UniProtKB/TrEMBL annotation:
Its EC number is 2.1.2.1. NCBIfam families: PRK00011.1. This is Serine hydroxymethyltransferase. It catalyses: (6R)-5,10-methylene-5,6,7,8-tetrahydrofolate + glycine + H2O = (6S)-5,6,7,8-tetrahydrofolate + L-serine. Keywords: Amino-acid biosynthesis, Cytoplasm, Methyltransferase, One-carbon metabolism, Pyridoxal phosphate, Transferase. GO terms for molecular function: glycine hydroxymethyltransferase activity; methyltransferase activity; protein homodimerization activity; pyridoxal phosphate binding. GO terms for biological process: glycine biosynthetic process from serine; methylation; tetrahydrofolate interconversion. The gene is glyA. Its main location: cytoplasm. It comes from Streptomyces solincola. It comes from the Bacteria. One of its GO terms (cellular component) is cytosol. It is found in: Cytoplasm. Residues 15-390 form the Serine hydroxymethyltransferase-like domain. Homodimer.
């Protein structure tokens, strides 16, 4: 790959100090600007979030919590963290918010530390069915340190069978029950999970990392009235920096805070906390509510476009920001399709589908989503063209038609040029 020269006005200090790294940053800026990013867990942050991420707050060490630090000189940092936590509580309607977790996986580890002991039974959605590694899956530390039991989806519908979840929970009696995942295209029934958790005597944790922005914007039901703990990343649909939050009922606040620090982490990343505060401020604006609903509308329009072209979609469609595509009938492995789409300027990830006969690193599906497209200002009327490009690219992946992929990339470039991404200097 040829690295293009970086215009010195973009990052002048970086370009002067480390031209090689500056060129790589410039290449990534152009890549993000010139491709359609359909990975559901990615998004474009605003210029304000980017600026907050690079402030002098990077220079501070702040072990502890506001008013209870192990370092002096925290007069300003305490206000930053309180501001972020206050905004999280207001936006999500929760009693308590901890904005210090470094990312989603450490946040979930803190939940286990707060409510379980090694060897205890924990329960979550199986990874191949759309769950997350940290929900007790075997290759994760959570599946090694705890006894993980998993629920899945129905083979005939691709939907969660809540009766089966209840039966398993009452049989296994987990200490912690996770709901949520990374490849769930349908609405999560938090009330149903809450009832199951109460019957089984489990702490209910709603992992809304993927849908936090949809929840904040009113495009997906909120878990706040039902879950003991809400875990989320702060990027993805929330359009913040790469960080995480744990929100909970007041009776669990001390346990959660103690588990994050000193249980798992040292000093928080104050520059990330500041960027989280900015993102939460943006998410409280009416325009963000419009954005969240547009994400869902775009995903449904994209699903309709794919269905019209004969694609098989897990659960038959979507209620949220993502579409899980089973390519078995197309005779193209997911990884092969994803790499071809990348060459066509359409960035997706290969993904396991429920009951997938193929291996996880070479699965049958691809996962596509609309958060980044929507951040560029694309609307439902653009989604049929995107579905058409996916169709042409998957066909080209099967036939080895590189010319067809190049033609798609040229058309993609026209669209991205007409709809520039926010926050990018290119």
């Amino acid at each position: 790959m040829t690295i293009p020269a970086l215009a010195p006005t973009h990052h002048p200090a970086l370009a002067a100090a480390d031209p090689e790294l500056a060129a790589l940053v410039g290449a990534e800026e152009r890549l993000q600007a010139e491709t359609l990013r359909l990975i559901p867990s990615e998004n474009y942050v605003s210029a304000a979030v980017l600026e907050a991420s690079g402030t002098v707050l990077q220079n501070k060490y702040s072990e502890g919590y506001p008013g209870r630090r192990y370092y002096e000189g925290q007069q300003v940092v305490d206000q930053v963290e309180r501001l972020a936590a206050d905004r999280a509580r207001a936006l999500f309607g929760v009693d308590h918010a901890n904005v210090q977790p470094y990312s989603g996986s450490p946040a979930n580890l803190a939940v286990y530390l707060a409510f379980a002991r090694p060897g205890d039974t924990v329960m979550g959605m199986a990874l191949p069915m759309g769950g997350h590694l940290t929900h007790g899956w075997g290759v994760s530390a959570t599946g090694s340190w705890f006894r993980g039991v998993q629920y899945g989806v129905r083979r005939d519908t691709g939907l969660i069978d809540y009766d089966q979840v209840r039966e398993l929970a009452l049989k296994e009696r987990p200490k912690v029950l996770f709901c949520g995942g990374t490849a769930l295209p349908r609405t999560i029934d938090f009330a149903a999970f809450a009832q199951i958790a109460e019957e089984a005597g489990a702490v209910l944790v709603a992992d809304i990392a993927h849908i936090a922005g949809l929840v904040a914007g009113g495009a997906h039901p909120s878990p706040a009235p039902y879950a003991d703990v809400v875990s989320t990343t702060t990027h993805k649909t929330l359009r913040g920096p790469r960080g995480a939050m744990l929100m909970c009922r007041e009776q669990h606040a001390k346990a959660i805070d103690k588990a994050v620090f000193p249980g798992l982490q040292g000093g928080p990343h104050n520059q990330t906390t500041a960027a989280i505060a900015v993102a939460l401020h943006e998410a409280a604006a009416p325009s963000f509510r419009e954005y969240a609903h547009q994400v869902v509308a775009n995903a449904r329009a994209l699903a309709d476009g794919l269905l019209a072209r004969g694609f098989d979609l897990v659960s038959g469609g979507t209620d949220n920001h993502l579409v899980l595509v089973d390519l078995t009938s197309r005779d193209v492995p997911g990884k092969t399709a994803a790499k071809a789409l990348d060459r066509a300027g359409i960035v997706v990830n290969h993904n396991t589908v429920p009951f997938d006969p193929r291996k996880p690193f070479d699965p049958s599906g691809i996962r596509v989503g609309t958060p980044s497209l929507t951040s560029r200002g694309l609307r439902t009327e653009h989604m049929d063209a995107v579905a058409g490009w996916i169709d042409r690219s998957v066909t080209a992946a099967r036939t080895g038609d590189e010319a067809a992929l190049a033609a798609v990339r040229a058309e993609v470039a026209e669209l991205t040029a007409a709809h520039p991404a926010p926050g990018l200097p290119v």
